[in-house]
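Complex record, two chains
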Amino acid sequence: MVDPSINEHGQRFDRLQLAALVGLMIVGGLFVCSATHANPLFENLPWYDQMWVRQLVWYAVGIGVGATICFVEYHVIARWAMVIYWAMIVCLIAVLIPGIGSTHGWGARRWIDLPGFQFQPSEFAKLAFILAAANFLSRPIEELRRPSIFWMAIGLMMLPFALILKEPDLGSAIVLVPTGMAMMYVAGVPKRYLAILVGSVGLLGVLFIADILFAPPSLQFPMKAYQKQRILVYFGHNYFASPDADATPAESRSIRQQQQGDDYNVRQALISVGSGGLTGKGWRQGTQNALGYLPRAVAHNDFIFSVIAEEEGFVGSVVVLTLYAVVLFAGLRIAGQARDRLGKLVAVGVVTLIFSHVFINIGMNIRIMPVTGVPLPLVSYGGSSVLGSLIAAGLMQNVYIHRKGY
Amino acid sequence: MLIFDELKKNDPQLRLVAMGLAAGFFILLVGLWWVQVASAGAYESHLQTQSYRTVRVPAMRGKILDCEGRVMAENGASYNLSLYLGDLTGQFQAEEKRLRPAKPATQSQPFWKFWVHSSSGAKKATLSKDEIAALQWQARNDVAYTVVTKISRTLQRPLTFDAHGFDRAYRASLYEPYTICQNLTSAEIARFEESYSESNAANLDVMTTRLYPLGTTASSLLGYVQKDDSSIEGEEAYFNYRLPDFKGVIGIEGGFDKELHGRAGEESVLVNNQGFRENEDVGIEPEPGNNVRLTIDLDIQRAAEESLTQHQGTEARAAIVVMNVRTGDVLAMVSSPTINPNYFTGNLPPDELQKEAQMMEDTNLLPQMNRATQTFDAPGSIFKPVVGLAALEDGLNPNEIYQVEEDPMNPGHGCIHIGERKIKDTVAPGAYDFNRAIAESSNSYFIFYGLRTGIDRVIKMGEKFHFGEGTKLQTGQDSRGRFPNLKQVHESDWHVGDSANICFGQGAMAVTPMQMAVAYSAIGNGGTVLWPRLVDRIEAQTPSSGEAPLIEPSAIVRDYLDVHPRSLNILRGAMLGETQNGTGKPAQVPGLTICGKTGTAQVQNQNGDLIGHNFWFASFAPYEKPQYAVVVMVQKGLGPGSGGVTCAPIAHDIYTEMVKKGYLRAAPQTVASTN
């Protein structure tokens, strides 16, 4: 077999990855349309105000921005990495201030309202972190062995992590951890540091969950009630496991209702995915979404995978997984072909970030992950998310375009 | 594969990341396979239970027809007005918005936001969950109340709005219409249709209801239905909702409910997450019930009822049975007074409904009782032919003369002394043979010969007629009556006076008119005791279905009297004389020879005081070859009357109608015999 890389040297873009990205955007457009077609809120909107049209507009904008990024060499962008990073930190702080940040009626303060667009800084902060971390970690490998550098890298990660967690947006905060760790690992941070990192993250995680599940309320980690409930639901925690003898009937009833409500989204998502079967019910034929069992507020964004899985079945799910696999493995190939460690780290960072999103999002649809508001990249409805994903794709292509030997 | 090429290079870190990715994808793949392929069935059934509601759709109930196929009970449309709650959602929401209190304007918006958000009206105050629920409840009630009031005005019928019932319906079955007004009259339908507009949230629903087009005709026999939507045997036991259905309670409707009822179908309604109806499909088509064709001839039935009304009024407590003596087929069965069965389904004008309701309460009239089969009373003299038959079989010479002695306390009337006790006779004292004793109905004669024959033989004869036993009618109205058995008459507390009472149809016995019809049929047909038969056949509602009708066997023999034909001939001759020269004269029909027996039984209350009489006329015709038996019973309070005066004229009318209808042939009349 002829080494295909010889042929590829002539390529300006990684076409395979681009094709998979286009595929995901097609899937996104189709299923945002399907997920919203039965929603009475959008029924009377003119066609140009329909969610799927808006999504297509965001694709167009995102492709424009992503393409623009391709033409500015990533070294140039990396030079501005810390500026972008701190600018995003300012945005993340700003979003927490009532009056600037908006909750949009949800529990969390995640958005900054701009004319015609609600800007979600955390989506871009993730990318800013990747750029900053890549820039920071691309220093000579000897320096990485210094503990001070390691701790600074940790700090680089923990600052946006803490701010996003404060919004609160547990999902977006958590994806930073695997991304940061993968980048440090690939950069060459000594294994013993990483072992400590993995160990302490794991230990913290276990303590965190144990705290939520078993600790008395006074010792519990301060969290929004709904976040705690989501995690409790994930662990199948029965609110009645330790019946409170003092609870009045009214209290017990309220607890029961709460549990049903918390459990509801996950159960409906599972029913959607499961009832899709092998081949699904056909595009726009899914009943879970059309009848409103799958909550309409989330069907086109966080739970869009349920809609795809119900309507296209296991076959459709595998197609979506394959598209992501192509994008991500092509991303890793780009990392391997990168001219320098900066490029490699940017690519690895983007790949890990997208993968974390995909894994958490699809995982929560089939109950192998707790419910956290993480979008499915490029497919879920949402301007910030689409724009962020396409900028991320632009960064990977940028690294590819400016790879070694070209 | 192309994209893995780089990973073959010596870059352990990237390889580990790639392996991590591959492992992640593998986990997702396995997870998806587990949910979507391995457990798909379980999730599919979850989906079904949460998004489908099953509705029981009743089958078309079979008709009840007379022997010529004329309709006695059928199904009709009843028109209801209902609200479709799904259509009202918009109005509910608008009303809720209107009701919502405005937020007090304490917080002003930051200045830079003025151009961001064009002011979208006053902000609504934030409310707690319970407050919102109360608000929504209020909004729904307001909307529904407004609609109901509007409709009440349109129909010009006062309607009440039941807030709690509405709330219950809203919570329980959003996917089903909420009925606000039932049984619209045609005028109301017209008014509703006239004012119909798109914004009208109410819909005219057509429901089936049970109709009895003949009103009170044969109504005791037909029985009635009541609303009952429970599953019958062999049906799906669980439904989310049941459309109104009827179940027969008593009479033919009750006894043949299984045949009439059919099999309910099932409709699946797809509902959305709030429980509103999206669409529906019929899962199982209902199977219509079968028609029940009776042996009743409506013409005879009507003639009997009209004659009864004409002679005794609508509130007469009476029963009539007309039976074919050869087959046991019942041609007419009247019980009076009776309730219009449309009362039970509410298909009567309000004033009539009220009238029927009042009658239902009447403990004297007891209109729900089928007096032809359900009430049992002393037969009085109409039992004498049974005693006579026992005596004849025992060797009584019909020409033997019995001297009825005069009652010293009541000159002109006879009496008989049984031990210490004197039993009065209504006939004049004198010489009586069998014919005269039957024709004039002498108590003394039958007591004397009954006792001479022996109470055992009388009881045995009565048992051959199956007095004191049911007649297996499936109407749920079948009484056994009362008749002593041999063991009872040999007990120490049985006295000769008790035996004497039996001999003229009083005392420890009671019969239903149906039992007497069976007995007189047996005397008429030569000694065969038959099972009475009410249902001729069970047939499919649609004749084109090709299903063969189930024909109920006719002339089922219950027993034989095993008496000598000579005895029967003597008895029949005496009974012919009764209508020709005796008490039964008013029953006479020109050209028809009727064998009959009148009777008057005393009715006593618990203290033994006389409170009334049961008048009887039991008969069969023609004498030459008996074909039909007619038994008429009228219960009256104290006052004038007798079997011959009260009942025989009614039998006369019935026989006349039967001649007219061709059931009986009247011999051509010569001028001489009409005088």
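Note: Chain A touches chain B through 52 residues (CB under 8 Å).
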